[in-house]
């Protein structure tokens, strides 16, 4: 069984409460869950710290995500709580600041990771904020037992891909239709949020199901002319 686990919080230092900031006519987190719900998985889980649960619960229920709370800083431990509770074999890891995640690319890397029985799988070459990670549940449980550094526990998967001698890694270059490594689609700053709002409006509802080629095409149509004209700096 595959479980898609989405991590989210409210206390981002660069954009506080960004998960609940409006994007289009809904909170950012609602759009992220809507996009990820199109990724095939037996279970979709929103994993958050306890102090976010009350505000996230209505959004998770509306999106048909299970809500699981766990440690705030030990995000790896939070994922492993989900593993012990639901016993999935594989995990798709996603983060709550990526409303333009490529659901089609997520489905493909999860399939490749499972077919190859990789402990860790992820595409390179995607826009920042477009990808997910796929991991074997047992590999994450081992990481939880052995990972000591705060970074390895906060970011969940570095213990896996940082130790190729211990784990089976699959890190292919993404297919050409999804390649745009210089593009920033994540929402981590006020400027990111403003650009995301413009892009959502340009997509006019076609973001779901979330297809990489559609999102890249909308970005080019919306932002590239201004960038070429040298007016990028005045864009939201």
What is this entry, summarized?
This protein is an alpha/beta fold and 236 residues long. It is built from 9 helices and 9 strands.
Q: How confident overall, as mean pLDDT?
A: 92
Q: Shape from CA axes?
A: globular
The total strand number stands at 9
| CATH arch. level architecture | Alpha-Beta Complex
Structural class: alpha/beta
Strand content: 15-25%
Alpha-carbon Rg, integer: 17 Å
Q: Which fold name corresponds to the CATH topology?
A: Spore Coat Polysaccharide Biosynthesis Protein SpsA, Chain A
Helix share, percent: 40-55%
- Report the order of strands and helices: EEEHEHEHEHEEHHHEHH
Taking pLDDT < 50 over at least 5 consecutive residues as the criterion, the unreliable ranges are 229-236
Distance separating the two termini: 42 Å
What's the structural domain tally?
1
Strand order of the largest sheet: 5-4-1-6-8-7-9
Helix tally equals 9
Largest sheet: 7 strands, mixed
The CATH class is identified as: Alpha Beta
CATH superfamily: Spore Coat Polysaccharide Biosynthesis Protein SpsA, Chain A
């Amino acid at each position: 069984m595959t479980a898609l686990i989405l991590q989210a919080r409210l206390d981002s230092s660069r954009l506080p409460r960004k998960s609940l900031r409006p994007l289009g006519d809904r909170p950012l987190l609602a759009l992220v869950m809507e996009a990820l719900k199109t990724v095939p998985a037996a279970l979709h889980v929103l994993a958050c710290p306890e102090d976010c649960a009350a505000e996230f619960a209505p959004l998770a229920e509306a999106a048909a995500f299970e809500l699981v709370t766990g440690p705030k800083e030990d995000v790896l431990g939070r994922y492993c709580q989900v593993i012990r509770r639901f016993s999935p074999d594989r995990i798709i890891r996603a983060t709550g600041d990526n409303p333009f995640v490529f659901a089609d690319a997520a489905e493909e890397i999860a399939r490749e990771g499972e077919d190859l029985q990789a402990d860790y799988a992820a595409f390179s070459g995607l826009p920042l904020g477009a990808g997910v990670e796929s991991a074997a549940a047992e590999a994450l449980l081992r990481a939880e037992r052995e990972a000591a550094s705060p970074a390895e526990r906060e970011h969940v998967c570095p213990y896996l891909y940082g130790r190729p001698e211990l784990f089976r890694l699959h890190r292919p270059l993404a297919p050409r239709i999804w390649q745009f490594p210089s593009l920033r689609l994540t929402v981590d700053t006020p400027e990111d949020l403003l650009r995301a709002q413009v892009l959502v409006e340009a997509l006019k509802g076609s973001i779901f199901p979330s297809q990489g080629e559609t999102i890249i095409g909308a970005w080019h149509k919306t932002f590239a002319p201004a960038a070429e004209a040298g007016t990028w700096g005045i864009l939201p």
